Amino acid sequence: MKKVKILGIMIAFIIMSTGLAFSAEKAPQKIIDLAHSKLSDLGADPIIVKAVKEENEKRKSLAQIQEMDNKWKAHAGIADYMQAMMDSECGKHLRDIQSSAGYYAEIFVMDNQGANVAMTDKTSDYWQGDEAKFKKTYNGGLGAVFIDDVEFDDSAQAYLVQVSVPVRDGEKTIGAITIGIDVDKVEK
Q1: pLDDT tens-digit profile, the chain (188 residues)
Q2: Which of 45, 61, 144, 173 has CA atoms 20 to 30 A from the CA of 166?
Q3: DSSP codes, 4-45
Q4: pTM for the predicted model, two decimal places
Q5: How far apart are CA 110 and CA 171, in angstroms?
Q6: 63 Cβ partners below 8 Å, 6+ apart?
Q7: CA 31, 94, 27 angle in degrees (round to 5)?
Q8: CB-based contacts of 186: which residues, under 8 Å, 6+ apart?
Q9: How far apart are CA 102 and CA 40, in angstroms?
Q10: DSSP assignment of 41-102, as one string?
Q11: Domains in the chain, please, with CATH?
């Protein structure tokens, strides 16, 4: 019994030291191509741009955003203010986009500080401004496409990759949109 335990510890050590347990899979080329074409185009969608501009005009402070983020994370289920984001004109439009292709797992839009504007499903938090999906996409107002690593999503029971693209008003980056893509449902 003792030998089995030691062997198990040694195997675990080898896996961790080689990085096998923690290595993340990069997005396949079909996702990269999709990100730089169809998904990037979503950042100029007039309904999405309008919603982000309206949210940016509210000029919320970071303290207000973080207060809402704490409230959001503490609430189990879907509160009225969350449902309002899903039922807004932009939220309904995002659901239409989501239903247009089987590979869309989730879609959510953020303002110029990374706060949620609209979404197809409840996100785990309200403020994305401290996460790579927003930081690398908003990119200090310069805008850039960001493709995260492929990860297994327990709730979807599928391998998903989050693709984030800037929301642009003309040439100006005003926010970001993140699209969860089911890797196995994208055609080559």
Answers
A1: 555 454 444 444 443 433 333 347 899 999 999 999 999 999 999 999 999 999 999 999 999 999 999 999 999 999 999 999 999 999 999 999 999 999 999 999 999 999 999 999 999 999 999 999 999 999 999 999 999 999 988 767 889 999 999 999 999 999 999 999 999 999 86
A2: 61
A3: HHHHHHHHHHHHHHHTTTTPPBPPPHHHHHHIIIIIHHGGG-
A4: 0.85
A5: 17
A6: none
A7: 15
A8: 30, 31, 34, 103
A9: 18
A10: HGGG-HHHHHHHHHHHTT---HHHHHHHHHHHHH--S--HHHHHHHHSHHHHHHHHHHHTST
A11: 26-185 (3.30.450.20)
Amino acid letter, residue 170: G
Residue whose token pair is 């879609």: 107
Gap between the Cα atoms of 184 and 188, Å rounded? 10
